[in-house]
Amino acid sequence: MLTFISSRWRPLLRTALVLGTAIIAAALASPAAFAAISATSLSATQSTVAIDGQVCPGLRTWSGGEPRAVVNGSTRAVTGAEFAPLRLEFDLPMAAPVQAWVSDLLAGRTSRHTVLLTESNANRVPIRSVDLREAVLTQVRFEELNATAKVAAAVTLVIRPGYRTKVGPTAMTVPVLNKARALGSSFRFSVPGLPSTGVSRVAPLVIGGDLATGGQSSQPLAGVANVVIAVAAVDAQAWRDWRDAVLGFGPQPAISPMPMSGDLTYLSTDLKTELMNLHFDGLSIVEITPLPATASGGAGIEVELACAKVSLAPPTPSTGTSPVSPAAPAPSPAPTPTETKPATVATAENTSPKDLGARDPKGFPRPAGLVRESYKSTIIPTQTFESAYYQSTLPFDELSAAYLAAAKADGWKAQSQSESGDIPSRRLLMVDFIKGEARAHVRVYGRDQGSSSSVEVTTPTPK
Prior knowledge:
There is one protein chain. The chain has five helices and 25 strands. The protein is mostly beta strands. Among the domains are: 46-175, Hcp1-like (Pnp Oxidase, Chain A), CATH 2.30.110.20; 327-463, Protein Transport Mog1p, Chain A (3-Layer(aba) Sandwich), CATH 3.40.1000. Strands 1, 2, 3, 6, 7, 8, 10, 11 and 14 form a nine-stranded antiparallel β-sheet that branches. Strands 9, 12, 13, 15, 16, 17, 18 and 19 form an eight-stranded antiparallel β-sheet that branches. It has a six-stranded antiparallel β-sheet with strand order 20-21-25-24-23-22, with helices on one face. Strand 24 (438-446) and strand 25 form a beta hairpin.
């Protein structure tokens, strides 16, 4: 059938055809851009989570938590109902309720909480809420860190809901997160006595749950998967020496073959402020695997470490580590032990009414002028690990000298000692001590005002 169009409408039709052809051509030339434009017409959902009524910012994604049937293995009949594991992925550092729940799991404590999830449309109008009660955290997964990562560091919680209640769409106001987000490339992994500036990758770290089934066990466990890191070629030999010492091969290295402690610190993007710290107790080397050579250097290694326990340690307080102005006075040289003031000599009475935590690590002297901020201990069949964190008004050099003098007077022998940092607020002293079968690792941190320190003591567990 032929259709004749009046000459009056032909210019308009011609213009419409030209515009339509241009739109189709643009879509074919750049499908992604066309899809992005089209997507704006759809209602995107936003998710919010509250734990025990406290809204937690930083939720990235969530899945699971839905009811499902329990099917008999032989008869294939439905015998009951259960809930699929709920998975919550958060940016780091964690909101306070999330961190408290994770700390309970790391300490072997089972705590039950109410989890309320709300989905809202693009206009922030709630459209659906899920209310899960008696929820138990069964597994935590700290996602991979990589020196080349461009996205925020993340942690995934695997949760077993107890039961679910019906609730209508519930509006929640997300508080402003004042903390900076940690990028997956901004981290520091350290083991005392081993070079770690070349650690460029930390594999996902899984803690708790059934490690073989993705955290779907009926009861939470305190199992810790092995820690796997990538070490640069320049540092590889020191890690091989430690492996040989642990396994009884080769000469004795400068560090002890006994299990060590270590830290994984999440940093701000300027690498100056500590946002979160994972502390490892009972680290022991399992295996070293060569990595392919890189374009910029030789072949690095992948190091697999067994770990007895992981805990959330308090990050070092931010001190605004801006460069010191030229007019600032240079730090005074470190005094020798004989120059240490009498007030800093360790005594049995060097406690403070402001002390927190149960006690000081047994067997290691405590200088005067300290306030204990935390204490923790881990006991395994062969060894006991104790650690404490302190604040002090003493200058960095004075506190460093006090520790060295007190340890020497008490019979501790320094095995290794290193100091770094070129401005007062970034100075760090690390010393490894030995006394009989006991080992101690001391860190002294410089601050704009005063100093802080940590002490870790490892002793054989009495039989």
